[in-house]
Design goal:
The protein is mainly beta and 273 residues long. The protein has 3 helices and 14 strands. Strand 9 and strand 10 form a beta hairpin. The chain is globular, with a radius of gyration of 18 Å. The C terminus is likely disordered.
């Protein structure tokens, strides 16, 4: 079963990148409030706009290297638009901003850095990244979690303990009727690092205000995983870092800065088409 998308393009608005309106669908709604959008949906919409802008520039030679998301206002269930700005384009890079707009105000910003890969030999420097084996493909669910000891949990509940966790996220389309790209999938799923880093015995106790994803290649597929690598906490703040991986192994990391909240319990999202 394929999963429903986060958004639908408003067909009443003439099609163009500058005027496109994205109407949030039920899967985009978040767990912190009934009228807010999930960070995954926000990150996915902005990453989609950034990737499309790079394609419009004709820069098929570039590969995404960094994606930074700032969530500075709660995104509501109102229609959205995305404005993109190229900050710098050179022979080996392209740096651009994408801003999510709702009701005339900016609510989130993504900054993307695309770099041109080279054919130089590997440096020989050790890579330290231990990641679990991905789970078998499944239909109709978004994600699986894995405790530090044990197998992937098929009921979708986040393990409620104090230990390191992993998550595997299956593909969720950003926009209805469009194919999901590996970069969009990774940028959206990166928001789940908060759940990997900050779910304890009482549930998810922090909300992330940002994320930064650094990758050395696109994922080989649109299903990706994160496993906790580091976590720090103090004075109501936390910082977490997860290793990102796919069926071919580790390909980067994602870090989040978080604020302590009243804990909530996250369950697997299972929405019908």
């Amino acid at each position: 079963m394929s999963l429903s998308a986060f958004y639908r393009v408003d067909s009443n608005v003439p099609a163009s990148p500058e005027r496109e309106i994205l109407s949030p669908l039920p899967r985009a709604h978040g767990g912190w409030g009934s009228r807010t959008l999930r960070g995954m949906a926000v990150s996915g919409a902005l990453a989609r706009a950034a990737e499309r802008k790079v394609a419009d520039l004709g820069r098929s030679d570039l590969s995404p290297a960094r994606w930074t998301l700032d969530l500075f206002r709660p995104a509501s269930e109102s229609p959205c638009s995305v404005a993109t700005t190229v900050l710098r384009q050179g022979r080996r890079l392209c740096l651009l901003d994408a801003t999510l707009m709702q009701d005339g105000a900016a609510v989130a910003r993504g900054t993307a850095l695309f770099l041109r890969p080279t054919e130089l030999p590997h440096s020989g420097i050790d890579v330290i990244a231990e990641v679990p084996e991905p789970p078998v493909p499944m239909g109709g669910i978004e994600r699986l979690y894995r405790p530090r000891e044990g197998d992937w949990i098929t009921d979708g509940a986040v393990p409620r303990d104090a230990h390191a966790k992993s998550v595997w996220h299956f593909p969720v389309p950003i926009v209805e009727g469009e194919d999901l790209t590996p970069f969009q999938a990774a940028a959206a799923a990166a928001d789940i690092t908060n759940a990997v880093a900050n779910t304890g015995p009482d549930g998810l106790a922090f909300i992330n205000a940002d994320l930064t994803m650094n990758i050395v290649r696109r994922p080989t597929e649109t299903a990706v995983g994160m496993t906790l690598a580091e976590r720090f906490e103090g004075d109501g703040l936390s910082a977490g870092v997860a290793t990102m991986f796919d069926s071919a192994g580790a390909f980067g990391s994602v870090s989040v800065s978080c604020l302590q909240q009243r804990p909530i319990v996250l369950q697997q999202v299972m929405l019908e088409q």
